[in-house]
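Figure caption, in words: inputs first, then the predicted bound structure.
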Amino acid sequence: MRTALVFAMFLHGSLQVLTEVKYVGDQFILLPCNFHTFEFDDLTVVWSRSDLSPSTVHKLVTKGTELTDQNQLYKGRTSMETDALETGELTLNLTNLQWADSGIYTCAIRSSKGEERRVTDIELLVKEQFPSWATALLLFLVLVLLVVVGCLAYRFRHYFMSDYQVEIDSGVETVVLPCKTPVVLPQDATVKWKDRYRKVHVFKNGSDQPQEQDRFFRTRTKVNEDLLKTGDLSLTLKYPTDGDTSTYTCTVYSSDGDVLVNKRVKLSVKACQLDVDEGAESVLLPFRTTPELPGNSDVEWSILNKMVHVYTKGSDQPEEQDQFYRNRTKMNEDLLTSGDLSLTLRQPTEGDSGDYKCILNSRSIWRVKTVRLTVKGRSQVQDQTEDTSNRSSSTDPTPLMADQPV
Ligand SMILES: *[C@@H]1O[C@H](CO)[C@@H](O)[C@H](O)[C@H]1NC(C)=O
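Bound structure (2-acetamido-2-deoxy-beta-D-glucopyranose present):
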């Protein structure tokens, strides 16, 4: 009566499939199965896999283990507790796990009358475990690959990056704006370097075209001779100043006007900064540019709207300079031939602090530079001198030593 009820429940109920994951070479796995067998006489417990033939994995009868129809795959690898039928613990111990052990295991009981009940279905997944040294090797190879790719990307970054940044300090003699292309360029291509609104350098019909470039860049630029062959279109800019801070584009046109290459380079040149103490004999505001400047060039040093120094028609023009700077400024006599436009300012005071701008202007050439001058006031300087004189004085001991208990 009871048996019939239990079997009826089985027929209508649905079995839950448990999934166990193990690895090849694991010592053993316990496939759990519980059933109140003690309420029945003469039961048979069968562990089986329906996908195998013969399907029996392990069989337990009242008399003991019965392995006559056991599948060869499980020979000597299965066991159950000897008192399983009394306790109802029908757990299967499967040892020395193999990849082929993957499958759905059914734990079923059979009554002497031939009725059968499935108690548990358990899906076992036996995986090939990746050895740890192989994992380490794989990780290492991936790392090496990443480093190699990273290095190559860095080495050939000019080819891939459309935007490139260059930052330099004021006073650097030359700067290279990189532009490289892997594209094979036709020998009649035109290369144009531009900043936001001016032509910086033009290479056309196999040679540089200085008459096409802006006065600001004339005699300051250079590109490689065989640039179309090598694909290295980088521009060398001489005597860069803060006035060159801009975004530059490097463009290559075919003879039909098609754009073959278009890259951008951001150049930032830090403004020149000078710190000097009030009371100094003089301060030199540096500005060096290309030598052999045209004889008709005008040079002006100014601050805000005050004229600091004016040089036109080959000589200084003191009558044009602001009263405040009268007799305090000096420029080299050969400034146009040497290209050294530096200004000497005598006896700088706090009031001289500010941004000095130098402009050289001729019909064919234009140059500009800013120098930020900071003159530390006398009061600050005096404090410092008093401090140092106190400390260095040998006649009276320093306050620190006097206060020290002996
Ligand atoms: C399962 O069987 C193996 C081999 O006989 C044995 O070493 C292990 O202790 C058994 N596990 C349990 C929980 O009985």
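Residues 1-14, 385-406 have pLDDT under 50 and may be disordered.
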